[in-house]
Amino acid sequence: MKRAYNFSAGPAVLPIEVLQETSQAVLDFNNLGMSIMEISHRSKDFEAVINTAQADCLKIMNLSTEDYSVLFLGGGASLQFLMVPMNFLANKAEYVNTGYWSKKAIKEAKYVGKCDVVASSEDTNFNYIPKNIKFSPDADYVHITTNNTIFGTEWKYTPDTGNVPLIADMSSDIFAIQKDFSKYSLIYAGAQKNIGPAGVTLVVIKKSFLEQKQKQGVATMLDYKIHVDNGSMYNTPPCLPIFVVGRTFKWILNQGGLEAIQARNEKKANLLYDFMDAHSDFFKPTVASKEDRSLMNVTWRLNSEELEAKFIAQAKERYNMTNLKGHRSVGGIRASIYNACPLETVEALVKFMEEFMKENK
User: Fold this and answer.
1) Model-level pTM greater than 0.90?
2) Domain 257-360: which CATH class?
3) What one-character-per-residue DSSP string does 57-86 give?
4) Active-site annotation holder among 56, 169, 223, 292
5) Is the predicted pLDDT of residue 208 greater than 90, yes or no?
6) Least CB-packed of 134, 295, 313, 349 within 10 Å?
7) Does residue 175 register a pLDDT over 90?
8) Helix spans in the chain (H)
9) pLDDT beyond 90 at 164
10) Catalytic residue among 101, 155, 251, 300
11) Is 169 a known active-site residue?
């Protein structure tokens, strides 16, 4: 089978090796004569799957099992928008608004308590990451969204929040670049962009933060401590997605870890950005500031919506390049080039961009 050039923003491309391992596990897992979807989540076989995935996650992040817990939960990042304030918003929380998903997180926090937006890039339609932000020392926590799939911006630095716990939605750039993850008290990420399929959400939480800052009286299924104490098995977990995430973690480690992953991601993104910058009269990146450009979601416009529609249609017709249409809220063109997107896919896209420009300039 010839693979499509898949630029989907999520669910997104997965490593071929992981797909092959998953296809085998779906038919016959560990030579049990049963699918990974058929075995008990309480079995030793699945216990090994989830325990290994948790250990590999912390290995990738260079974090200790003594200091952090790894959870695999349902509900997507959208449920985390509510779980975070339900557990930790006692007096006030501070949020940085950098786009569509940040706004959704802010909305949920305001249902729970006082939520201050301390910085925003909405004044220019979210085309930059705010800098030099002043945080209050008495906030319960600070929340950021590290990558913005719709507008194409990404935090390349970790903000200094002093002694205030930092929480991050890393759904669309988890394990894309090297970070000092120990600066974060809680990280969450929907799996379907960079580490697996839809259906499971990764949560990595600092144990001391949970012990010292969690509110009392949180409803059972929204209580992080319940899920930590039960090893993500208070209820039946999403077994197949967890298996895929675990195999993706192995793939990341086998690639050379985050140093190698980041180097490849930068090479892919630079191919696109450099080409557009060299032909900015035709291709117009929506993020002008190079330091704020996403390595995961590259967004641009052409001189008319008609030309953009033609570009998207011809990319699909000629080369089976899929999912290049920008988000419905902003339009334009978007290439999502997550970890598993091959370099050859980006090279093919740049080649088509050059071809299209010559035909339509």
Assistant:
1) yes
2) alpha beta
3) HHHHHT--TTTEEEEEESSHHHHHHHHHHH
4) 169
5) yes
6) 134
7) yes
8) 16-27, 44-61, 76-88, 100-112, 207-213, 224-229, 239-255, 257-278, 305-319, 343-360
9) yes
10) 101
11) yes
